[in-house]
Every structure is written in C-alpha cells, then in structure tokens.
Write a structure and sequence with these properties.
By secondary structure, the chain is α+β, with helices and mostly antiparallel strands. It has two domains: 217 residues, 4-Layer Sandwich (Glutamine Phosphoribosylpyrophosphate, subunit 1, domain 1); 380 residues, Rossmann fold (3-Layer(aba) Sandwich), CATH 3.40.50. The strands form three sheets. Strands 2-3-1-9-8-10 form a six-stranded antiparallel sheet, covered by helices on one side. Helix 9 runs parallel beside helix 20, helix 12 packs across helix 28 and helix 27 crosses helix 28. The longest helix is centred in the C-terminal third of the chain and has 24 residues. It is globular and about 75 Å long. The mean pLDDT is 92.
Amino acid sequence: MPGIAGIIRKSPYDGIERDLGLMVEAMRHEAFYHGGQYMNKDLGLYLGWMGHRGEFCDCMPLFNPTRDILMIFHGQNYLDDETLRSKMRAGSRINGSNASYLIDLYTELGDEFFRCLNGWYSGVIADFRTRKITLFNDRYGMGRLYVYEGDNEILFASEAKSLLKVRPHVRAIDPEALAQFLRCDCVLGNKSLFKNISLLPGGSSWSFNGNAQVKKGRYFDAKEWEQQETLPFHELYQQFAATASRIVPLYAQDAGKVALSLTAGLDTRAIMASLHLRDCCFPCYTFGGTWSDTYDIVTARKLANICNQPYEVIRIDGGFFNNFAEFAQKSVYLSDGTHEAFGAHDVYFNQIAREIAPIRLTGKFGSEVVRVRNGIPFFEFPREAATIDFKPFLQSVPSPSQVIRAEHPLSSIVFEEIPACEFGRVAVEQSQLTLRTPYLDNQLVKLMFQASAADRAEGQLQVQYVRDKSPQLGAILTNLTRSGKSNRLVRELRYLFFWSLFKAEYIYLFATPHWLTWLDRRLENLRPERFVAGRQKFEGYRIWIRTKLSDFVRQTLSDPGAEFTRFFEKKTVERMVARHIAGTHNYLDAINKVLTVELICAKLLKP
C-alpha cells in the first residue's frame, strides 16, 4: 500500500537525498502511481509520497497561503460540507474531492485538526515558524506507519520495505514477532516483523522541535468513547439509522469511479439500502472461485437486480493459476509480509476490480463493529518443523487475550485486532485500488460503543435498517441469519442447516484432519469437492497444493538456497510438503506460513 516516507535528522549525510529517493520508489508498484519529494535541509526534513493518480490525496504538497506551513497527507478524510463549513472561516477553500482544503483546516484549528479528521490516513505537518514537525495517523492505525528510531534520526514510511532499502542492519526478521505471526496470523501490539522497526500507535501525533528528538503524543484516547452511556435498543436504532443514512453517501462520492463489492450479507446490503441505488449507478461485483456459484454470488445477483445495477462475477481462472508465483510474491511483498502467500487471490481479484472502477466500496468490518465476530485466532504450529533455536520463541507466544490491552471488547476489536489481523489484506487491496468502508467511520464506531453487548450479539440493527429503508432487499435472507417472517422454530432450523453446511465446508477446505485427507484422496475420482465445496468459500488451497500449485510449492521449499531454514527444519518441511501433495496429510497452514517466510526473505530482506 503506497503512502508517505521520510527522514527527520538534525544533520544531513552524503547520500541522504539518494536514500529518500530509494524510500519513495520502493512504494511504486504500478504504472498509475504518482509521487513526489520535498526536502528542507535547514529543518532536517526529507519527505516523499506515493499514491494512486487522481485519488483524494493526489495534490501534495500542501502549503498555506504564506507558505510557512507544509502538509503531506495520505489517505482519506470523510467530512460533509456542512461540518467543514462549521469549522472553517467564510471564504476558505472547501473542495471535498481532494485534500487541498486540509491545510486551511489545520491553519484554522491548530492541533484540534487531528481530532477533526475521519478516515484512514497518515501525514506530516511542518510549521516553519516554530520549527515544529508533527507526524500523525488515524485513530485505528490503519494508515500504518513503520518507524525506525536511530542515532539522531527517525525514519518512517507507510511500507516497511522503504526502511529496509536504506538501513541494511534492520533487514532481519524478529523471531519473537515471527512466532506471533505463525500462531496468531499477525504480529500483536506495535511491533513489526522486522528487528528495530516498530509501528506508530493509532491516534498518534509525534512532534519534533529542531532535531530528531521526539515527543510521543496521542490526540485520541479510546476512553472517550468507552465512557459513553449505554443506549436502549430503540434509541440506539434511531441513531444508527440516522448515522448510516448520513455517512454512507460520503463513502460513495465520486460518481462513475465507485463500484460496490457485493456479498450476500447484511454489511453491503445496508450500504445498498442507504444509497437508494435505483436513483444512481454503481457497478456491482462479487469474487468467485472455480466451483459453482457461491451463496454470495447467487444472492448478490438478486440484490443487484432489485436495485437495477450492473453486476458481474470476478472468478479465479487459468490466468490466476498460470501466474500464481507472481501473485503470491506480490501478496507478500506489497503487504511487507503481513499478508500470506495464499492471499495471492486478493492481488488477482483487485487488479481486475480496478478495471471496473478505481474505488471499491465494501462492507468490510461491519460484522466486527456492528455485530460480534471472533477476534484473533490462536493456532498450534507444528513444533517439529521449527529449528532448535527458534522453538523456544514458538513455545512462549502468549495467547491474544494475554496481549490485548483494551478492556472494552469493542476497543480491542477496532483499535487492536482489526489493525493487526486485517491490515495485510487491506494493504494488498489498496495497492490496486482505493478501498472505502463506512464501518470504521468515527461517527458510527463511536455510536456502537453505546450499544449493549446483548444488542450487538443479537445483530438486529442492520436487519431492521434494511427492512425500513428497502423492504425488497430485506426480504432476501442471508445464509446465517435467524431473522425472517417465518416462525421462530423454522428460522432456527434454517440457521442450523446453513451453519452445518458452513462448518462442513470449512473443515473440508481448510481444517481437514489427516485421516479425512487420506479418505478424500481415495475418493478423488468422484470429485467430492463438487458436493462439499463452493457453497460459501471459493479458496481451495488445500486441494490446489496437490494439483495446480504443487510444482511451485515443491520447488520453492526444496530450493537448496532457501532462506526459511533460519527458522524451520528443511527436511521436516519437505516431508510435510510431500505428504500433503500425496494426499495423506493436511499441512495447509504450515505450508502457507513457511512459504510466506521464504518469500519475505527472498523479496524483502535481500538487497
């Protein structure tokens, strides 16, 4: 995911301008990217930026009229014109289509500016009058910034590879962080996968005055939202409906450039209901696999038809498998190792989605924010595959519940779990297009802190909202809902039926025990996946490792020069791969993780 990069250093050195250029160019992944640089040697400030041409922040750098305040901003800010006018003087420039008004907003509000922002973003402000430099990001930390604190200097960048390019001594995987990644699918806290590189905490405003010494401030504390009064459901719903109807159109701005990534669930359906789609045109699409149409596809097609919107399915096909090595490498490289090799389909899907529209409107994180969804997983990793030196790190990984610091369940989700677990996929998606979701809008998240645990668990807010705004959309049931017009027993039986199908498919595609894997191989001529897979999920990596991807997996992990051997026993890994391909065992997760580590070493750590 492109963004910003910079060096703050009191005294320059030979090659500092070259290093800045390398940091910026490390974030150039596509021909449609556009970037630039700004240097102020007197202030010790060296900045660069990279982004999609034509997006909200493609107007950097920003200066105030007297050119004594500079701003570099990357990301989005969702404020309606009425709110902006209330916070700015008459005659100020207000153009919500790009970020140029932000410098006026900062000039007007000062440090209160940070609390006014709403979206995913990161940025730098330099006030030449006071010689103050401020580094900041959004409340959730989704506008991720990697930070290296060296001797009399601080380097930062939206992509870790920018730092790895210019500071060779940080080109190493932190074994403690890697152990967390293997067992939790992410690195917890403000750590990164790389030694001596940390993450800027969400809601930060770090300031520098005349040198590289930093004052690490925060402009936001989650307690502000946690301490609100809990609302009864009827009042909560009224505020939810008003908030959704007000904010969702902000995320659908730029008509003609926005498409809706549509599923069968409530999250995207509530967006459709809010937008009154019959009055405008939003191309809709759903991602699909090689098997039959999933429930998402079947239902999304009906929803698009009700709203009279164009609809298509983006499917995995031969082009994906023929170029899988490239997609897997990109998944790891673009995300700085936070998205796995078997996230390759996310690169493929979003490349095609950009051809439909450069902005993807999605219901991402609706389940986590409005309802209740399980958080960070905690897996067992085959310890026999770890080297003697790495095994203690693997054994000492604390469970996520021991690491999560937030006491409020919603705080742990939005401020810790989502930024840790979901950032990798978001980074891959945003490398190809601009991703928008209203479910991490500040107004909506703040409101959901006023929901009781029971109301979030019941999950009726979106159900009622869709029914009220668009009865036709509300009449089409989701697969895992207990709502509907039938009696309670029928609704419960229907839910249990689809839940059973979902669990069976999940076990078959992902969590297949070894004995069932052996049976599946014995029955392969009957193609049992036709009967079990493809209803809810399109990812078939457990099967694809044995078939379409076997050569790539085997060759990559049996290469004599493989770098993963720093952490894993090569013979053990080769045995796992051989057994999986033979169909006697299921080592899907372990193979995915080891393959990801190998690609990190090959694509990110080598000069």
